[in-house]
Specification:
The chain is an alpha/beta fold. The protein has two domains: 2-94 and 206-256, Rossmann fold (3-Layer(aba) Sandwich), CATH 3.40.50; 98-203, Rossmann fold, CATH 3.40.50. It contains ten helices and ten strands. Helix 2 packs across helix 3 (71-85).
Length: 264
């Protein structure tokens, strides 16, 4: 079984790691184009063009499913991706985990890129799934880029700024950008208030990986007995490459590293 994932950069690592945990025997194809980041400020047409490029590069490897592990691409490019690739290749988008977060009653905060924050797309999800729940939309300028480059100072500054915009009484934070899941512990530490119950964080990686398996009718757990880890193919800007070194600064990248290709 082969599963492909695409994103602008290393934001696909959380979903890839979730898939590796669910099905360690699955071959993974990771397609991204980090030289074109960030995608958030681009026009919808520009995002769609870039997303189609990443998707086509992944589809050439004949996966059973394609996960669009990027909120921005899911917002702007999902219809075009599905129109071109389905039904031959199921395409699974990423949706911020607003519905499960709101089920806890709130108050909740949604951390997202400035382009997504306040967008009709996100407001629609809030209306549909968090009606009656106190919701604060928190823009996080610079955080995705800092995570992409493992810029510790940049991450700390962006997280601190977003935490300052987050009401002190929130009980739940939705991570509305796939890159943010790579620094979930740092976000939790910044938002957690002394003597308050532990903050609940909601990402999308686990749910997206599970949905991809459901779409292709695959068991979400590996078979009994020893399992040979699946292969990992990395595509950067349409060309096969090694797993970027920056990925190894995160636990999700390290989980994938033992099966990373050695070619440059």
């Amino acid at each position: 079984m082969k599963i492909a994932l695409m994103d602008s950069g290393i934001g696909l690592l959380p979903a890839a790691a979730a898939m590796r945990r669910l099905r360690p025997d699955a071959d993974l194809v990771l397609s991204s184009d980090p030289t074109t980041m960030p995608w958030g400020p681009r026009t919808p047409e520009g995002v769609t063009e870039l997303a189609l490029g990443c998707a086509r590069a992944a589809a050439a490897h004949r996966p059973a499913a394609l996960i669009v592990a990027c909120n921005t691409a899911s917002v702007h490019a999902l219809p075009a991706l599905r129109a071109e690739l389905e039904p031959a290749l199921p395409v699974i988008g990423t949706v911020p985990a607003i519905k499960p977060a709101a089920a806890g009653g709130g108050p909740i905060a949604i951390w997202a890129t400035p382009a997504t924050t306040g967008s009709p797309y996100q407001r629609g999800l809030i209306h549909d799934f968090a009606d009656g729940v106190e919701v604060t939309e928190v823009p996080c300028p610079g955080l995705a880029d800092a995570v992409q480059h493992a810029d510790d100072e940049g991450i700390d500054a962006a997280v601190a700024a977003a935490a300052a915009r987050t009401p002190r009484d929130v009980t739940t934070v939705v991570l509305g950008c796939t890159h943010y899941e790579l620094v979930a512990d740092r976000i939790r530490a910044a938002v957690q208030q002394p003597d308050a119950p532990p903050i609940v964080l909601h990402g999308s990686a686990g749910a997206v990986a599970a949905q991809a398996l459901r779409r292709i009718g695959a068991d979400p757990f590996p078979p009994d007995g020893p399992v040979t880890p699946g292969a990992l193919t990395v595509i950067l800007g349409g060309r096969e490459a090694a797993l970027p070194e920056v990925a190894l600064t995160y636990a999700e990248g390290v989980l994938l590293a033992p099966v990373a290709p050695t070619r440059a």
